[in-house]
Structures are given as C-alpha cells and as structure tokens.
Write a structure and sequence with these properties.
single chain; FAD/NAD(P)-binding domain; 299 residues; 2 domains
C-alpha cells in the first residue's frame, strides 16, 4: 500500500514524486515506456528554467535521479485500469498496486503521419514544438504539416526566424481561425501548399526532404527542407481512466489549475489534462500542485 501512486514518468509525474516524497509520503511511479516522456525526443532544450541548454535525455535523467534520490519507487509497467474507492487499485500488466491517492500524469503523445522512418527521425529533423525547437532552424527552410490553429501558430512563430516556411495541409482549406490564416498570408517567407499530403521522408540519419502528393491529381513532388514540424494534433493517454474521471470531447481530463478531477482522491497533472499551454515548465508546475493536493487529501 502506497500513500500516492503516480501514473506517468514525465516531467509532471516525476516532479509530483519529488514533492510527495519531500512531504514524507510513500510514492510509486509507474511508467510504461521511457522515463522523461516526450522531452526525451528533443536533442537540445533551451526553455527550461535553470538550464541555458540541455538535451532532453539529460534533463530526464536528472529528474529520475532526483526522484530516486528521495527514495521514490518506480515500476515499468502499463496501466490497464483503475479500481476506484477509498483505496485505489491500479491494475497493470505486471500486477496490482494500491494507494490512498492517485495522480494521473500520463501526458499526450503527438499524432504522427504514419510514415516509414518517421519515429527514428524525431529529433533528427522532425519536431513538434516551434517554441522548443524553432531556434535550431534560424535562417533555414522548414515545413509545417497541418492546418489547424496549432499548425498556423507554429508557422507564424517559425516565420520570424526561418528563411522559408512551407505550410502543407491535406485539405483544400485551413481548419484554423481565419485571423491566423490572414496573418500567415502577410508573411513573405511563407508558402502555403493546400490539398497535399506528405507520403515519404528523404534522408538517412537526418531529414533532408519530404515527398509530396497532390490529392486532386496525384501529382508528385519533392520539397527540400532542413526540418519538419508536425502539428496534426495530440492524443491524450487517458483511455484507462475514462470510467473514473471525466474527460472532455478530446479525451483530456477535465481539471483546472488545481489539478483536481471529478473523482475523489484522484488528481491529474501535465499534458493529459485540459489546459492552454503544454510545456515542460507547466507540466512541472502541475506536478507540484497535484502532489500537494494529494498530500492534503491524505492528511
């Protein structure tokens, strides 16, 4: 029996573990894949307070070391379901674990294009966050894939520093706000390509070009680029908790800045909750808030 179980070993979950252990609560962190979360895909990070520059892997290692140094326990397993009650039972593919309070910090994964070599090129030419990685493409040529608000905002940000920005959208129109579309059209270094899909990636160790196909007539072309930002949505990892907490229409946990969910004794932190800004700093902030809320709940 643990005081607090944290599902997810990214910045939110590991920060929660640090705060909970400092409050002298017994803690188990369960992670199904890589400790550190999405940040491990970033070869260089420059927007984390206290670090002028650090790789995502290095930052993740520091988080894990800190949590383990405070004697938080960790378990590599996939959570299948949670049995709610005064005592919560977390069912995983390697056994069951019980706790008094639960923090869900499973994050959200970026929706991928589903192309060959795509995963191996993440961090080697493929990025998902212009705020995080845009500076590495200053004076270079990039492509933004997508047509919603996120893609348009990414393109606008990249246009400030990149030499050339291509925006590739599979539909014949943008689904984002018209105001953002109008702003984008004023940028002289932005070229919009509608009704076109990316059907292949070019490059061995790093991305050098993308193969395009125009939907209307199946015309093929190749775009030489230095980097590609994929902005076609996020997939929150909340399926296992749909029967105990309220999720919104997009699958995110319904919770505000207090990180309190609709289930008593269940808290949520990081990218898996409904929020406006998804960054490492805000994930860590959520982790601290959720941990302190869980500690107060236990008493």
């Amino acid at each position: 029996m643990y005081d607090i179980i944290i599902i997810g070993g990214g910045p939110a979950g590991l920060t929660a573990a640090v705060y909970a252990r400092r409050a002298n609560k017994t803690v188990l962190v369960i992670e199904k894949a890589t400790f550190g979360g999405q940040i491990t895909f970033s070869p260089k990070v420059e927007n984390i307070p206290g670090f002028a520059q650090i790789t995502g892997n290095e930052f993740a290692e520091k988080l894990v070391e800190q949590a383990l140094g405070l004697e938080a326990e960790v378990e590599c397993a996939e959570v299948l379901s949670v049995k709610d009650g005064d005592i919560k039972t977390v069912v995983t593919d390697s056994g069951e674990f019980q706790c008094k309070a639960l923090i869900i910090a499973t994050g959200a994964k970026h929706r991928m294009l589903g192309l060959e070599k795509e995963e191996q090129m993440v961090g080697n030419g493929i990025s998902f966050c212009a705020v995080c990685d845009g500076a590495f493409y200053e004076g270079k040529t990039v492509a933004v894939i997508g047509g919603g608000n996120s893609a348009l905002q990414e393109a606008l940000l990249l246009a400030e520093t990149s030499k050339k920005v291509y925006v590739v959208q599979n539909l014949d129109f943008f689904t984002g706000e018209q105001k953002l579309v109008e702003q984008l059209k004023t940028k002289s270094n932005v070229e919009i390509i509608l009704g076109t899909v990316v059907e292949g990636l070019v490059g061995d160790d790093e991305l050098t070009a993308i193969n395009l196909c125009r939907v209307a007539d199946n015309e093929k072309s190749t775009l030489q680029i230095d980097g590609m930002f994929v902005a076609i949505g996020l997939i929150p990892q909340n399926e296992a908790f749909a029967d105990i907490i309220k999720l919104n229409q997009f699958g995110y946990a319904e919770a505000d800045e207090t990180c309190v969910t609709t289930a008593e004794g269940v808290f949520v932190a990081g990218d898996c909750r409904s929020k406006a800004i998804r960054q490492v700093a805000t994930a860590a902030a959520d982790g601290a808030v959720a941990a302190l809320a869980a500690c107060n709940y236990i008493g």
